[in-house]
């Protein structure tokens, strides 16, 4: 490995290590370095007397604690992050001069923060919502941030509406309910009165909004950006992250139950995967358009409520990101990281998408209140790995000690340095797009078709996915108290599909829509999760067993499942090791600490003892897993219970009586994710 390459991939980690501290084994001191002799009792005038003002140790400790919290993000407050690296497959020099996209041997450090959008910092993670997918590339030319979502379009077309959208999504101000949910009146009132949201609402009501794992969802830059190459030629570009494990979701009932059983479900999944060396991987894809093709489509390429269907503009996979290190401290890294779509490097530029243009203002502004001043770029997680010099000075929490008298440009005292760098030598120069027009507050007519792509999305769904969308609308609108708002939404989505809207109307006691449905017949198969990659790797299998089980055979099956990349974990009545015919086996959960919703599949090993309370628990597990369409397996004494429950022979229910190669068949079923045809 060359020195340059080594320096690149470790540069961020080395930088962070300079700021890392281990307190273990050290003497307790004040922040001034004074050793402290006592940390349990405040200084008092007499054993039973009042605390003294003089107690600087007490005051320092208490004051720091009193100031520990910072404002949570106004959106995307609930997030979780990891470190990793990115490597391009081949030079992208024909399209962009971005340094980190040139050399396949260079590994660029990255920091990725995933988030829900609407909920507070402590809210549950499996709620119905878009997921943020923000990546900070620490490149040698400065930080590049790709601040995207797992949904490729947005609710609104102009950033000036963002505060309205967010006010409508958040808990209603008079009673602060509901938390982390769009199932309430103000959200749907906003939707019905801002119909540009139709396409994104279709995505939000689909399975995309309840991902199985942060490792199993796509990411999108959403806006149209620009790539600019060394020759100054520009292409429009849309960014995609494609998860190597495929795109998979929970079912709604399951998602709601997990929100209670394990509100940290997604971060736990990410943390454990990285901890175990199962590093999440995503390929970076780009859709590219020449400037000549800008007006070739029946939508405006600047409109953030539109996708470029992959069948029309193919996604070229250009590199891979691997998340391989958990954070050391969530506050210092995950909470203090500051993303900004305006953090770009030479070779990447903006389009005139009015949503993007507004974002370019909002992100620095929000960090000023959230992180308390203009020096947040000095926080370790936000520092670029390349040097940075300018004439900005002072402000709260300034850490850099800038030497010398000069802090202005132009100057002679420092030979006019720090000096601007010509474009040819790496200085950033904005793409010289020609613009002209009158100052207007308006929206281009080319942004006014709100339903064609919402309809395209609907057309692209499989039957079960369509059913889930109808159920999601019915759930959400069922929680809307105002009947008029319900009806407005039904009428709005009648523009997408009459049958869909009529079924929703029927479920929520509204009238069928009067609107005319879109005539779009096109579909985009790439949008259906049924066409995603099916990969069993890292799937969790809940293995139910009891003392007296044939542990010899069970450990053989466990080994085989592990060899297939699955993660079997034993659930039993007690945590004590499972005794049986062979070696004793470790029990990870009891019926109190586990639930079928925490697993991708259930394997019932059974027990010789077969007590009725035990069987009752097993029935509950298996029934629930069955209702959530999950694979269920039994190859030992467990088979009889599946027969009793009349589950044997059902799709996705695998026993050794049905298949001689049980483990292979069960693994195959798990890779299929869910059995919708039950
Ligand atoms: Fe935003 C945070 C993604 C539109 C204003 N946004 C934020 C985060 C993500 C996105 C992933 C969390 C970043 C992190 O992990 O720290 N936002 C999007 C996407 C959008 C979008 C994909 C549409 C395509 N956002 C958008 C608009 C505005 C904002 C139109 C305002 C004009 N977003 C913000 C913000 C946040 C934010 C208020 C809150 C915390 C932060 O920035 O750092 O400035």
UniProtKB/TrEMBL annotation:
**CDD domains for this protein:** catalase_clade_2, GATase1_catalase
| Site of covalent link 3'-histidyl-3-tyrosine (His-Tyr) | 340-363
| One cellular component term from this protein's GO annotations in UniProt | cytosol
Q: Which SUPFAM superfamilies match?
A: Class I glutamine amidotransferase-like (SSF52317), Heme-dependent catalase-like (SSF56634)
The cofactor named in the record is: heme
User: Is Transmembrane helix set as a keyword in this record?
Assistant: no
> From which domain of life does this come?
Bacteria
Its name, as the record gives it, is Catalase
Q: Which InterPro entries match?
A: Catalase, Catalase_AS, Catalase_clade2, Catalase_clade2_helical, Catalase_core, Catalase_haem_BS, Catalase_immune_responsive, Catalase_large_C
MF (Gene Ontology)? catalase activity; heme binding; metal ion binding
Span list, region Disordered:
1-33
Which residues are responsible for catalysis? 76, 149
The Enzyme Commission number assigned here is 1.11.1.6
- Which stretches make up the Catalase core domain? 29-417
Q: Which residues bind heme?
A: 73, 113, 162, 359, 363, 370
**According to its UniProt entry, what is the function of this protein?**
Decomposes hydrogen peroxide into water and oxygen; serves to protect cells from the toxic effects of hydrogen peroxide.
Its UniProt entry gives the catalysed reaction(s) as: 2 H2O2 = O2 + 2 H2O
Gene Ontology biological process: hydrogen peroxide catabolic process; response to oxidative stress
The species this protein belongs to is: Paenibacillus lemnae
